[in-house]
Input
Amino acid sequence: MSSSLLFVCTGNSCRSQMAEGFAQRRLGAAALVASAGTEPAVAVHPLAIAEMARRGIDISSGYPKRIDLLNAADFELVVTVCDHAKENCPVVPGAKMLHWSFPDPADAVGTPEEIAAAFRKVADDIERHVNELLS
Output
């Protein structure tokens, strides 16, 4: 499997940050793993940070980045993790493109427990996809 992965979503505040964390843990520090957004948010969502910390992965130093500020040519595989990003992600010459569609947990409504459960479910789904990809 590729040792240079870029995960892209709209805000780069939840889904792509989580995917980056799971992939980096699987591949180790030697691999180039990053995430970016088509319309980056101001910060990584605190509930994404909390959910990943619960899993033993620290993404607290991450920050949303614009995809056009990265050198996309560095990546062998680009994975969009939301439909909006798929529609707005620039073509990366030479990279394999893959699409996964996950709901944005930041859009979850309800009690604090229900919102946390939405983050947990999306993280579960992303972790399963990353593990399958890297197996």
Summary: Helices lie at 15-27, 46-54, 83-88, 112-134. Residues 4-134 form a domain with the Rossmann fold fold (CATH 3.40.50.2300). The radius of gyration is 14 Å.
